[in-house]
Design a protein that fits this description.
The complex is a heterodimer.
Chain A lengths: L1 H29 L2 H9 L6 H11 L15 H4 L2 H6 L16 H36 L4 H15 L2 H15 L15 H31 L2 H8 L4 H12 L1 H9 L10 H6 L6 H9 L3 H29 L7
Helix pairs in contact in A: 1-15, 2-3, 6-7, 6-9, 7-9, 8-9, 10-11, 12-15, 14-15
Chain B lengths: L2 H28 L18 E6 L14 H10 L4 E3 L8 E3 L7 E5 L5 E2 L9 E7 L27 H5 L17 H12 L8 H4 L6 H7 L16 E5 L2 E7 L5 H4 L10 H7 L2 H5 L14 E7 L3 E6 L34 E6 L3 H9 L5 E3 L5 H4 E3 L5 E3 L1 H5 L3 E6 L2 E7 L11 H13 L2 H8 L4 E3 L23 E4 L2 E4 L2 H10 L6 E2 L4 E2 L1 E6 L7 H12 L4 E6 L2 H10 L4 E7 L6 H4 L8 H4 L10 H11 L5 H17 L2 E13 L3 E2 L15 E2 L1 H11 L5 H26 L4
Parallel strand pairs in B: 1-11, 22-23, 22-24
Antiparallel strand pairs in B: 2-3, 4-5, 4-6, 6-8, 7-8, 9-10, 10-11, 12-25, 13-14, 15-25, 16-24, 16-25, 17-25, 18-19, 20-21, 26-27
Helix pairs in contact in B: 13-15, 20-21
The chains are: A mainly alpha, B alpha+beta.
Chain lengths: 325, 722
């Protein structure tokens, strides 16, 4: 398995390089270093000299990808791409164009993102599985039909509606929790209740229906019939046997998103003023802060690759028949 | 246990359960409890806190870099320039802040002789002498901390010392020192220092003697040598006095001295923050200011909140004892003569979206609020006379409304370099005048701004010297004065002007088709579509076809710099209350396309330029006023702008918010604000009682709907195969 992991990590390097080049090209197709300087320097009284100064200070006065004036390796090294990108592979994110240490910002902002995303995932998973199992348990009854209809309705509503509706009903009308905000430590709990509830409800429709499909596929299998024949109750059959055997597809969906939880949720964090990483990238794009954009895209790619790797490894844990080679 | 005993026991148990359930219900429904939705931590008794918000983190808190209103909201309370605006008096009046008295200006001719300065052409340079009050202290800060031998404690931090430091508050020791004239001189050197990239460096090099040369000399020098390098035009002439030498005469310079750019900066701050270990931890001067103002920043987490605390070393400053007529009646002199500031702590909380922000304001968790268009109708209604007043719901809550016409202008610009729409011939003037009549800004304000604006009659917005109200102040090319009000000329007049311009019924004689004009905009979103359609319709009234060229902001800026746009919307917000700050937007040498200046329409009229050069160096006087009116008339005739809108700001304040008076020039208003904390606490309790019964109802309904299924399931389990 070690060899497999090493091979996957080696594959990741050209992939990350390609992502980096693509981000770089896309960003600079839309924005020139002059545009970036103007954005940072503001609107009033900006002179050409100030723009040149800014580019020089931030290393944007070099050619983008190829420096014809240099010789040898310096043709590559004395470019914006090399100077700004090579550090990423050592996880040195550098300084943002507005002068902040990006690594420090990320380490600060990932915790609120995680505080929201992790409970949302766990509670959401438990609720989805429970509802799906309940539908399977009460299949062919009015309860299953009603729940499916409810799931379809839930799926059809925009996530923005849940947020605004949730804030209106629970925060404004019932006044049970703060409408938005965040605090450190345990004080964060009261701010997280509402976004977690909303996150769970908004994901319930799709999640429960997906898991129901998985479970229904399992309940028709021979081992389930055998379990029933042994005299196990339907609840025991579902929780002891069906759930375990449906774990592989569940894991596929869950493990792959685990590392991405760090990246946060843009809309949730924005509406609830949670200081996570979700809005970090969007704010950077709006401010044309290339240093942050490339760092976040790179980090996202690394985490996605990590998620895929973790999914493969997790298969070997839940299914002894799977071997990585 | 007998059957009877059993049933008696059950009935007792059931009764107690019912009682318990009923008591919980009564508790949940009836009793008054502390609000559960309070987003703030408990505040120490006797501490007065103001709660405000910010939607976007301020980009800079360094007074040499900061230039936008959201940045000034913070640094205006922390840094102190020598002058400030009187809080209550109008028109805006400069008064000393850290300066002992108003500055003295001496004018010199080319021979170095002192002259009276009335004739600006004779003035070779002007000396501004500023004396500051002795005894003013900087806020407590680790940059000033010294050990017992008098050495600066934290200026050579090693890895061990840096280990436990994450934020500025982690430093154990804090010191202070007295403000001296050298601190002001040092800050002006910082404006010139190229690595700081001050946005006004380009402007100041035109005025301050030796500024450009100093910047050149400091190009590759570290910031630590800045304090010892002399800047010819700025010198400390004593411990508490300094002199700024200006090229020629520049009366507007005094207004710059009321802006944070010219606030005092201790050299120790730069030396302290220049340490690499602190930069890696994002502890920089741009993040943690060091000033002498009424407040200092104790927490700066712009991802969550920013907290200002009262500066314990703040010098004596008192609430004004005089204002303008009506201030006493409005309660604005109730605190006259009292020591400032009134509030102990100001909490700025990150709030990105309007909806939660508005709801929290209504719950009493923010003390003041602007009004987003989503909630405008909920807050404000207009009377038959067009006056804004609060809705009954707002009045019931005791909310106060404050409106003020801002010292800003948004205009529709014509690129004067354009072959079709630009130019200075009578025909071209008539074409632009016709469009000025057709674009109905009264309608625009009503539809897109909820009535929050007044149609501009010229370059100057209300509140700026030279602005004229009433009949004398209207644009006679667009409006008539009818029944004591300006009335937009009819579309027939516009059509007539268009015909005289050579486009009868909007037909271009060259093509024989409708005249086509291009409107460049960076507003490409779907939300902007109605606004663009509205502009199209305004031009269609004249038979002109308007094509919208929506692009991204960078390309739009590029077009403006190249002078390749035709029509566009632009705006300007006053730096200071002087007409020069608006008229320079149309001064020929400031052409954006030719010289990269702020004249976005590239207007160039020798008569206007000559008057501008004369007017800008004059002190306010009837003669200056007459020149201003002449300039307004030239612009109204040439019509390089459709003088669009002077926006009106609408702000809401809770009943506990005191000393509210709009002051669009002052950045340091916070120190005058007072909060009645007890009233706020009482209202918050009253407005935020939690409601539980709908939750109980939902659970009951769920239980009722699931119960038959459970029964059916149990029945199925108990079924036997027959």
């Amino acid at each position: 398995m070690i060899q497999y992991i090493i091979r996957r990590v080696a594959y990741a390097i050209p992939l990350l390089l390609a992502v980096n080049i693509l981000t770089f090209v896309l960003f600079f197709v839309v924005n020139s270093p002059d545009d970036m300087a103007r954005m940072q320097l503001g609107q009033k009284h900006v002179t050409e000299q100030a723009i040149n100064n800014w580019k020089h200070q931030h290393g944007y006065d070099l050619p983008l990808l190829w420096n014809a004036e240099q010789s040898g390796l310096e043709k590559l090294r004395q470019t914006i791409f090399y100077q700004k990108s090579i550090g990423l592979f050592l996880f040195d994110f550098g300084i943002s164009d507005s002068g902040r240490n990006i690594g420090h910002d990320i380490s600060e902002r990932m915790w609120p993102s995680l505080a929201l995303a992790l409970p949302s995932l766990i509670v959401g998973l438990l609720v989805n599985i429970t509802v799906a199992l309940m539908m399977v348990l009460f299949r062919n009854s009015y309860l299953e039909l009603g729940t499916i209809v409810l799931c379809v309705i839930l799926m059809s509503i925009s996530s923005l509606f849940y947020i605004i509706g949730g804030q209106f009903f629970i925060g404004k009308i019932l006044k049970l929790v703060p409408i938005s905000g965040y605090d450190s430590g345990f004080s964060a709990i009261k701010f997280l209740i509402l976004p977690i509830i909303i996150s769970v409800i908004s994901g319930l429709g799709a999640g429960a229906r997906w898991y129901r499909t998985l479970f229904l596929e399992e309940v028709e299998k021979d081992y389930v019939r055998t379990a029933r024949a042994k005299g196990l109750s339907e609840v025991q059959v579902l929780f002891r046997h069906v759930l375990k055997n449906a774990m592989i597809p569940i894991l596929t969906g869950v493990v792959v998103v685990l590392p991405l939880l760090f990246m946060g949720s843009l809309i949730m964090e924005s509406f609830f003023s949670i200081p996570g990483l979700g809005s970090y990238t969007i704010d950077a794009i709006n401010r044309q802060d290339f240093a942050i954009v490339r760092s976040m895209v790179f980090l996202g790619s690394v985490l996605y690759i990590l998620g895929l790797l973790m999914t493969d490894i997790s298969y070997t844990w839940v299914d002894p028949r799977v071997r990585l080679s | 246990m007998t059957h009877q005993m059993m049933s008696s026991f059950l009935s007792v148990k059931m009764r107690s359960q019912v009682c318990f359930f009923y008591s919980v219900l009564v508790f949940l429904v009836g009793c008054e409890m502390a609000p559960l939705n309070n987003p703030y931590r408990k505040v120490e008794p006797g501490v007065s806190v103001l709660y405000s918000s910010f939607a976007e983190r301020p980009k800079h808190l360094d007074p040499a870099k900061a230039y936008s209103s959201n940045e000034y909201a913070f640094i205006g309370q922390i840094y102190e320039p020598p002058l400030q605006y009187h809080y209550l008096k109008r028109p805006y009046q400069l008064i000393p802040l850290t300066a002992e008295k108003m500055l003295t200006v001496k004018y010199y001719n080319r021979l170095g002789q002192i002259i009276d300065g009335k004739d600006a052409a004779q003035v070779a340079y002007s000396d501004y002498l500023i004396s500051i009050k002795p005894g003013i202290q900087f806020q407590p800060h680790p940059a000033f901390s010294r050990d017992e031998k008098g050495r600066l404690l934290y200026h050579h931090l090693n890895a061990e010392q840096l280990d436990g430091i994450d934020v500025l508050g982690d430093f154990e020791q804090r010191g202070s020192r007295e403000l001296v004239a050298e601190d002001y001189v040092y800050q002006i050197k910082r404006l010139a220092y190229p690595k700081i990239q001050s946005p006004i460096a380009g402007v100041m090099q035109n005025y301050i003697v030796g500024f450009a040369e100093f910047a050149e000399k400091m190009q590759d020098q570290p910031i630590t040598v800045l304090k010892d390098m002399p800047l010819d035009g700025v010198q400390a002439t004593g411990r508490y006095q300094y002199r700024i030498r200006i090229k020629g005469k520049y009366p507007q310079f005094k207004f710059w001295l009321a802006m944070p750019f010219f606030a005092a900066m201790p050299w120790e701050a730069d030396a302290f923050y220049a340490q690499p270990g602190l930069i890696d931890k994002n502890i920089t001067l741009d993040w943690y200011p060091v000033g002498t103002g009424p407040y200092y920043l104790t927490e700066n987490n712009p991802n969550r909140r920013m907290v200002l605390e009262k500066n314990p070393l703040f010098h004596d400053e008192f609430y004004p004892i005089v204002g303008e007529a009506g201030d006493k009646r409005n309660g604005l002199l109730a605190d006259a003569g009292k020591k400032l500031p009134f509030i102990d702590r100001v909490m700025y909380v990150l709030e990105k979206e309007n909806i939660p922000y508005w709801n929290k304001f209504l719950q009493g968790y923010y003390d003041a609020s602007g009004i987003a268009s989503d909630s405008f109708d909920q807050a404000v209604q207009f009377t038959g006379e067009g006056d804004a007043k609060l809705t009954p719901m707002m009045r019931e809550k005791g909310i106060q409304l404050q409106t003020a016409v801002t010292t800003s202008v948004f205009y529709l610009g014509f690129n004067m370099l354009d072959k079709v729409i630009g130019g200075y011939s009578e025909q071209k003037q008539k074409l632009r005048q016709a469009i000025s009549i057709a674009v109905n800004y009264e309608e625009y304000i009503a539809i897109f701004m909820n009535g929050r604006g007044v149609p501009a009659q010229g370059v100057l917005p209300p509140g700026i010297y030279g602005y004229q109200d009433g009949k004398a102040g209207i644009n006679p090319f667009v409006y008539d004065w009818v029944k004591g009000k300006p009335k937009r000329k009819s579309i027939a007049v516009a059509r007539q002007l268009l015909a005289e311009a050579g486009y009868p019924n909007g037909i271009d004689p060259v093509t024989g088709e409708a005249l086509t004009l291009y409107f460049d905009t960076a507003s490409a979103s779907v939300d902007e579509r109605p606004r663009m359609n509205w502009f199209r319709k305004q031009f269609a009234k004249l038979g002109i076809k308007l094509i919208i060229r929506a692009t991204d902001y960078n390309r739009f800026q590029q077009k403006m710099r190249q002078g390749s746009g035709q029509l566009f919307i632009w705006g300007w917000n006053a730096d200071y209350p002087d007409p020069e700050n608006f008229f320079f937007l149309l001064y020929g040498p400031n052409s954006k396309a030719k010289n990269g200046g702020e004249n976005a329409v590239n207007y160039e009229n020798p008569d206007y330029d000559r008057l501008f050069e004369k007017m800008r160096n004059m002190d306010n006087s009837p003669e200056r006023l007459a020149i201003i009116q002449q300039m307004q008339q030239i612009l109204r005739r040439d019509a390089p702008w459709v003088f669009g809108v002077n926006p009106k700001s609408f702000s809401l304040f809770h009943s506990w918010y005191k000393n509210i008076k709009p002051n669009l020039m002052a950045n340091n208003r916070l120190k005058y604000t007072r909060i009645e904390a007890d009233l706020r606490k009482q209202k918050r309790y009253q407005w935020n009682q939690p409601v539980f019964w709908p939750l109980v109802l939902i659970f009951v309904l769920l239980a009722i709907s699931v119960y038959p299924a459970i029964r059916a399931y149990r029945r199925r389990l108990q079924e036997t195969i027959v």
